[in-house]
Amino acid sequence: NISKVRWPEDYTFPATIEGRGRDFKAAWFIANEIGVSSIPVSEFYCEEHVGIGENYARFAFCKDLDTLRRAGERLQRLREYLV
């Protein structure tokens, strides 16, 4: 659940995700500022139900243990952006 992630109000997102859901912005922010990639969950829904996934991000764990440990360490930095 990414509903508590807050990025700075003046944070700039690329034009390709303007107009997309909150999950796209959170995924972009987490990837660029924290260094861990995720998948916006709303991408898996039809347009009618896209809002269901807007507060979620999907993380894949198909990596070796060292990579997963580093991702866990990086995700700790996300705490400063939680409300």
Automatic annotation (TrEMBL):
EC number per UniProt = 2.4.1.16
What's one GO-annotated cellular component?
A: mitochondrion
What InterPro entries has UniProt attached to this entry? Kynurenine-oxoglutarate_AT, PyrdxlP-dep_Trfase, PyrdxlP-dep_Trfase_small
Keyword vocabulary terms for this entry: Aminotransferase, Glycosyltransferase, Pyridoxal phosphate, Transferase
Molecular function (GO) terms listed? chitin synthase activity; kynurenine-oxoglutarate transaminase activity
Q: Does the keyword Transferase apply?
A: yes
Q: Which domain of life is it from?
A: Eukaryota
Q: Name the coenzymes or cofactors required.
A: pyridoxal 5'-phosphate
Q: Which PANTHER family match?
A: FI04487P
What name does this protein carry?
Class V chitin synthase (EC)
Q: Which organism is it from?
A: Ganoderma boninense
